[in-house]
Amino acid sequence: MKCMNCGQENKDAAKACRKCSRDLATPPAWFPDGKWHLKTLGIIYACLVVFYFGVSFILKSLPKPYHIRKIPIEMTPWLGKAKYLPEDQLKAPAK
Ligand SMILES: [Zn+2]
């Protein structure tokens, strides 16, 4: 068994390193390396791509008119150009 601390070769049954006396029974602490980061980020990116296309497919399969991505101005007149009401329409109706 090779020591994770100093690299000294030890007997497989050894409980501590001959050279640095590190405890060989406990596993070494784990640290993420570049390969782990690439793999994890790749998995996250792949999940996001699958999610995006899944949501796009679901939105395209919606019935009319909910499948429309660019909503015509007739359906949303409040999103059109800012218009100010004429002065006479702002007044309270006469009794
Ligand atoms: Zn050692």
- Overall 3D shape: rod-shaped
What do the pLDDT scores average to? Answer: 84
* Tally of alpha and pi helices: 2
Our Rg estimate from Cα atoms comes to 34 Å
List the helices and strands and how they pair.
Blueprint: H1 34-60, H2 87-90
This protein binds zinc ion.
Zinc ion binds at residues 3, 5-6, 8, 17, 19-20, 22.
Structure report:
This protein is mainly alpha-helical. The protein has 2 domains: 1-28; 31-71, no CATH class. Helices cover 33% and strands 0% of the residues. It has helices at residues 34-60, 87-90. The radius of gyration is 34 Å and the shape is rod-shaped. The protein starts with 33 loop residues before the first helix and ends in a 5-residue tail after the last helix. The protein binds zinc ion. Residues 3, 5-6, 8, 17, 19-20, 22 line the site of zinc ion.
Write a concise synopsis of the structure shown.
The protein has about 100 residues and is mainly α.
List keywords for this structure.
mainly alpha, 2 domains, rod-shaped, binds zinc ion
